[in-house]
């Protein structure tokens, strides 16, 4: 497969030609869905009004587009990309297509941390992000320690992760039942995973956190690509696997927990995006860029679908992603059983 080397100053990156083409097409799809998201609302805005609003004009409709619709659309793009990256990281580390954050308990752990913050502290944006990250790290550590006792393997890690996920889900239900009524109602609604009502105040800090994490990931992308080709290739090229895996897991937990803190646990984006991206790009391993772009497309699409299915009452995006992702999971399991 032919490759293209992109250079800028001292930095360069090698990208397979097909991956580059798929990425460009995905960016075009994202731009189209984003425009549709900015047009859609209680009152339809034409593309001309959207472009006028983005330049600072448009009157009252321009304020609605800039202050209400734009944060939501950008959140769908950024959060979808972050979930796609997190899924690619954990599927690469476990070498298993089921090794995504929602399956192995990281979503549930992040949700536990956020619930503790909501019920004990004031629940500010920074506190929610911190609590979610700590909860995700605790869940990841627990899964890792239980998995390595009998010899670390991808299948063992996934199975133990499913068990940890079930236990954390029970803990979360207990926390909600013991919480005050207002907090419980907010927590249950938030647990569905939704982008409804997000504004600039909600997404500012998460965007910065995710940006920093993705920059760190980009700096380690070459080593991650080598590791994805197998242990022998990674060792031969001088990649420190243990340190790399630790760094990747921390980035994956950070991405998952940050999204969960703001939008709640949006299921199955992290599961499906890496595999869809890998198949479309026909790339070895679990490539990060196609996974990120596919995640953005999936979350944008599911959020738009959630807005129109029962309009004018918007559904949480997590409800639609769960329905779509559940169908994908059934297909994936049936395919793996068929090969067995």
Automatic annotation (TrEMBL):
It is a multi-pass membrane protein. InterPro entries: ABC_BtuC-like, ABC_transptr_permease_BtuC. One of its GO terms (biological process) is siderophore-iron import into cell. Keywords: Cell membrane, Membrane, Transmembrane, Transmembrane helix, Transport. The chain crosses the membrane at residues 20-44, 73-91, 103-121, 128-147, 153-177, 198-219, 248-273, 280-301, 313-334. Coiled coil: none annotated. One of its GO terms (molecular function) is transmembrane transporter activity. GO terms for cellular component: plasma membrane. Pfam families: FecCD. It is found in: Cell membrane. Belongs to the binding-protein-dependent transport system permease family. FecCD subfamily. PANTHER family: FERRIC ENTEROBACTIN TRANSPORT SYSTEM PERMEASE PROTEIN, FERRIC ENTEROBACTIN TRANSPORT SYSTEM PERMEASE PROTEIN FEPG. This is Iron complex transport system permease protein.
